[in-house]
Amino acid sequence: MEVAVYTIEGKETGRTVALDESIFGIQPSRQALYLDVKRILAHKRQGTHKTKERAEIARTTKKHHRQKGTGGARHGSLKSPIHRGGGTVFGPRPHDYVVNLNAKTIRLARKSALSTKAAESAIKIVEDFTFEKPKTKDFLNILKNLQIADKKSLVVLSEKNSNVYLSSRNLERSKVVIASELNTYQIISSQVLLISESALGKIKDQLNN
């Protein structure tokens, strides 16, 4: 699959690059996509939820009222869950939500996500670029020139670039990542991928290993 390479001014360079069919042209696996997205979202959960159970409540151990003769139920502790301020029954406890997935399935999920975007013509290739200093206006101008400013975009660079990252940080609908950190959830949750020429090679090397 051949796609045009654009400049940051939004003009075609007259060159094209070939998208690897083994990465951008496979039949997407819905199961792999589901499992990898589940893994990514699960890893974002802190798992620090906690409520106090009966044994952890700090209240008096004195018997609430006498056993017989009150006409009411028998009560032996105010820590009981049936009392206001008592412990929670089977409340949440801290635990992790780690979902283990083998590397082969993770690679298949990323390829499936990229192939889906390629089939939707939602991938644009741009010449490598950088900024002398962080400036949101310059980054926004690139998006406008490429006619993707009104879409949720994911900009993929080959390596870390602080000036580009800082320029994009205030834009709610755009995110900058480097090729080695690109994941399935980022791909499918964006409307368009803007990939730099050098990042394309990094993606190929990463997913064909």
TrEMBL record:
One of its GO terms (biological process) is translation. It holds the Pfam family Ribosomal_L4. Residues 45-83 are annotated as: Disordered. InterPro entries: Ribosomal_uL4, Ribosomal_uL4-like, Ribosomal_uL4_dom_sf. Transmembrane segments: none annotated. Keywords: Ribonucleoprotein, Ribosomal protein, RNA-binding, rRNA-binding. One of its GO terms (molecular function) is rRNA binding. SUPFAM superfamilies: Ribosomal protein L4. The keyword Iron does not apply. GO terms for cellular component: ribonucleoprotein complex; ribosome. It comes from the Bacteria. NCBIfam families: rplD_bact. Forms part of the polypeptide exit tunnel. HAMAP family: Ribosomal_uL4_B (MF_01328_B). Belongs to the universal ribosomal protein uL4 family. Part of the 50S ribosomal subunit. This is Large ribosomal subunit protein uL4. It comes from Schleiferia thermophila.
